[in-house]
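User: Predict the structure for this protein chain, please.
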Amino acid sequence: MSATMSILFYAKISRTTIRKTIPIYLRVTIEGKRMEVTTNRFVFPNQWSSKMGRVKGNSKESDEINTYLDYLKHKLYQFEQDLIREEKEFNIENLRAKWFAIGENKHTLMEAIGIHNEEIKCLVGKDFKRSTWVKYKTTERHVQDYIHWKFDCIDLLLKDLNIEFIKALEYYLQFIKGLSINSRGKILKNLKKIVADCTDKDWLLKDPFHRFHVKHVDAKVPHLSADELHRIEKKEFGIERLSRVKDLFIFGCYAGFAYIDMANLTLEHIKIGHDGLRWLIKDRQKTDMSERVPLLSPVEKIIEKYRNHPEAIEKGKLLPVPSNQKLNAYLKELADVCGIKIRLTFHIARHTFATTVTLDNGVPMESVSQMLGHKFIKTTQVYAKVSDKRITNDMEAVIKKYAEGYI
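Assistant: Here is the predicted structure, written as structure tokens:
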């Protein structure tokens, strides 16, 4: 007895385009397994009937789309008969092979991205973090919008890709979406990786994007000077939320932890080091690299201050940390009160630790890199800006030598 096939046409609201239209998708279900493909047709939300799975009205445009949907349904039944005639099992895998004509180089870009992202999703918590999957889903959304903007369709065959495609995508991300050079660079890098994987799967004979170089600039995140840091430390606040935000920021300046790692600290992360002193030791969420930082006096005082804080106790955390959004909003208010001119965010605390607290006080770059939990010292060099004070300290002997008349 042949398996039963269920066919559904539906409009995907989550893929609303920049023209405010929604794409129509086809979903086929056989014995609980699904295949979803695009129809390369778009409608406005008020034109679509979810109940009927068709476009409303009797206009020429709606008739054309509905006729095409009927054709796709007929095609599916034809494939079913083909499989029966070929004495092959009628299942979703064999139907998918028929639909995409596997072996005939008919894989599509959005299909490749979708399969890649599903593989990443299945490995979240094992080989990948959820944030990695979210980044690739963002790439998927931008590429989908671009294809609709540029080609007025939903998908393209992989074999039709060329370097002009990704160059035009870069233009779209910059001038239409208004993304910064690094933001669009991440999307382009993700796309290059997915397409390169397609050559490994023999879906492409060669990588069409291999000659395209993704542009990147080092982010110029500022840090506080020693004077600005002390100005914040000395400031007393009568408002509890500002007092707490000040303490958390100071904690970041003297411990160097990123927001998410500070928020996830517990008492278990305080260890006794080889020197007999207390250290904070924790794997970074972003890289799984270990951060190992001796507790400086300001950090010890803040930990002790919040040791019995009800919010921290309830969550089982070392500190009562609000959301990153709230923390940065309150830091703007704190900066105004303290006369800090730069736009203060919590990430600046990490840069301040790398530069003002450590490097400016003679701590070697290699040690700073270890404390920050960086995989590569090049990453630390981006964080750790060389200040005038560091140059003066490094040049002290040379300045003295020439001041005394030596050549």
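The mean pLDDT is 90.
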